Amino acid sequence: MPESKQDLLKFCGPTEYSLRNLADGVIYCQHYSAYNDPFEFWSNIYEGIPDASREPERFAAALRAWGMEGCSPEDEDVIAYFNECKDYQPPFQEMRDGVRIACFGSQRDNLLMWSHYADGLRGFCIVFDENLVTKAEPEGYVVDVAYIDAPPTLDSFVYAIARDQDWYHQMAIEETETRIQHLGKTDEMSWIPIYEQAGAVALRQMQEIWQLVFAAKPTEWKYEGERRLLVQSPQSDTAPILRPYPREAIKEVILGERMVDHYRVQILALMKKRYPGVPLRTARRAKGVYTLVID
Predict the structure, then answer these.
(1) Between β-strands 124-129 and 250-256, what pairing exists: parallel, antiparallel or unpaired?
(2) Which residue range(s) make up the domain with 290?
(3) What are the tens digits of pLDDT across the range 52-98?
């Protein structure tokens, strides 16, 4: 469920490990249980067809996703459609266990990111092209983190209905365009905006649920402006993976002004050898204000 394309910023401490990963062209992706936030993936996921008498809110949400609010649970069309959609539910919990995550920032001049993850301007920041990173193998996708006040409650059945509605309206648009093109039924053109709007609503609901499943954190973390690369791993354990990326995925590298000389020499030599032509910039403290200048 990809988001809009933009840069991915990886803030790195001045360590040999950071240099080795840069030299090898790999991104460290780990299981959610290894992260320092104890509320990672701390949410409740509903599954299955909602019981209208015991779960009226879930049932109503499913009808809204279908665009059929107010229908009776005894309606034969409702029963038939819900039974069909139950097979479309994604196994979110299994997907969570199999996913590996790499975390990125979104602001080059974020004071706290440079302090917490790049050792107070002693480290560096790699600026990645999101499109080239996500298309590397194994394929990944990027989600912006949602910062919320309480753990989310998610419904895989509502997601299944939204996914079906997205597909249905895409097919309706294609079929309508075909009838207009080949049969000259121009009177049907007015239906296309209606299908587009309904499909957009379904897609937006899918994206919102997807984000809350894989990228929801307490508001205290909001300063990070985190963006996540999610990669499904075939492994059955929780071991991390090192995911390669093409050399051209690095757009630039920003060095912290407090980087020690011997480390600066190493990274400059590495960049010249492995990534010739990639711009090198420096993050500096501005005089008189608490601001960073990147030049």
Answers:
(1) antiparallel
(2) 1-40+98-145+215-295
(3) 999 999 999 999 999 999 999 999 999 999 999 999 999 999 999 99
Residue 3 has pLDDT above 50, yes or no: no
- pLDDT band with cut points at 50, 70 and 90 for residue 189: confident
For 15-59, the pLDDT digits (tens) are: 999 999 999 999 999 999 999 899 999 999 999 999 999 999 999
Q: What pLDDT, on the 0 to 100 scale, is given for residue 1? A: 41
Name the residue type at position 154. Answer: L
Which long-range contacts (C-beta less than 8 Å, at least 24 apart) are formed by 63-69?
Answer: 65/158, 65/161, 65/162, 65/165, 65/202, 65/205, 66/161, 66/165, 67/165, 67/198
Q: How far is CA 274 from CA 21, 23, 250, 267, in A?
A: 12, 7, 11, 10
Encode burial over 111-137: b for 16+ CB neighbours within 10 A, e otherwise.
bebbeebbbebbbbbbbbbbebbbebe
Cα 17 to Cα 13, 118, 295, distances in angstroms: 9, 13, 26
Domains of the chain: total: 2
Q: Select the more confidently predicted residue: 242 or 182.
A: 242
> Would 93 be classed as within a structural domain?
no
Closest residue by Cα to residue 99 from 29, 169, 25, 1: 29
Largest CA distance in the chain: 74
Which pTM was predicted? 0.89
Q: Give the C-alpha separation, 53 to 47, whole Å.
A: 16
SS3 28: strand
Residues 56 and 188 both lie in one domain: yes
Burial class (CB in 10 A: 0-12, 13-18, 19+), 207: middle
